[in-house]
Amino acid sequence: MNSVAIVGVGLIGSSFGLALREYGFAGQIVGVSSAAALEAAKKLGAIDGSASLREAAGSADLIYLAQPVDRILITIEKLPGLVRSGALVTDAGSTKAAIVRQAQRCLAGIAFIGGHPIAGKEQRGAEASEAQLFNGKPYVLTPQGPSTALTDSFRWWLEKIGARVVEMQPEEHDATVALTSHLPQVLSTSLALTLARQSNPNAAEIFGTGLLDMTRLALSSPDLWTSILATNKPAVLAAIEAYSASLADLRRSLESDTVVELFEVGASWAKRIREQHRT
Known about the structure:
By secondary structure, this protein is an alpha/beta fold.
């Protein structure tokens, strides 16, 4: 892998470019994005220069789609006839089934592997990027065919920049992140919405770090999350239903003064994932 085109040089795309440079990638990295985003990414050193999608796709060994999900779907439609022979296309979208289906429809004869770095922030843009963003974080790949020299090279670079590569089927990925990523976003937004609708004037003044922690995700971009939720709606709705059942259990336990049992179950699971996160 000697050249990379990053389509969408926001948080993830610019962090990928910075990570490659940090860990010794010596090839060319070009960006495809808006003029403002390209300027910011180049200033940070995440890319060497800019190009049109046609120019970038026609010359790069790796085409890395780091746009919002709806934009990735559109870009995949544009790639046939642009990608040079032997190149690999991958994406960093937060849902996988819709993107993989789109690639299967549009990219016949072009190597593609779906991907999702579990490494986002509530901030957006190249200004929030960092070379260590992927370090120690899961990076899901959803291969649909045998490995090639280029997919092996891409995986090698992911591991070199510190990512923990995990392979899953697209539907398995979407069902999992609906619970572990999309549900937390929905709950954080719902909590902030609940408080915003309260008439109690003290709610905006009397709070501690717990509320700040719980509403941090509510700061995320609505545009970004609209396309994520739209392409994973059944799984997200199932996750909300599961949460609603737990909330109903907690309410019944509170009414019967047995809430401590559910607190203990929740605390045990929360402790387990923190221990896993530290390893």
